[in-house]
Amino acid sequence: MRVAADDTRGAAIDLEVWEMDAAAFGDFVAQVPAPMCIGQVLLADGRDVSGFLCEPIALEGAQDITQFGGWRAYRAAAAGPA
Q1: Alpha-carbon separation of residue 54 from 23, 80, 82 (angstroms)
Q2: Theoretical Cys-Cys bridge with 24: which of 20, 52, 68, 78, CB 3.0 to 4.6 Å?
Q3: Of 6, 21, 15, whose CA–CA distance to 44 is shortest?
């Protein structure tokens, strides 16, 4: 998610919020492969939560999936009819 005062290109997408204790979160974060990373994500209700981000280097040439409304919808569309 990118938030900037002069950036109006962003759009809301669906996401999941999970709860885990600090030890489980640490184990989880240790398994996140680059260029993915964990950072702060601003939710529509104003909360900041830890969530998946991507290092800018991986964005070059990447497909924008915002039109799908979220990761699960993108994956479902990419898989085609069941």
Answers
A1: 23, 25, 29
A2: 20
A3: 15
Instruction: Please report, to the nearest 10 degrees, the dihedral formed by the alpha carbons of residues 63, 64, 70, 76 taken in order.
Output: -30
Residue 20 near residue 14, CB atoms below 8 Å: no
pLDDT digits (tens, 9 = 90+) for 42-57: 888 989 999 999 998 9
Quote the number of domains for the chain: 1
Residue 26 — very low, low, confident or very high, per pLDDT cuts 50/70/90? very high
The CATH number assigned to the domain holding 58 equals 3.10.490.10
Name the amino acid, one letter, at 82.
A
Pick from 77, 76, 34, 79: nearest CA to 55: 34
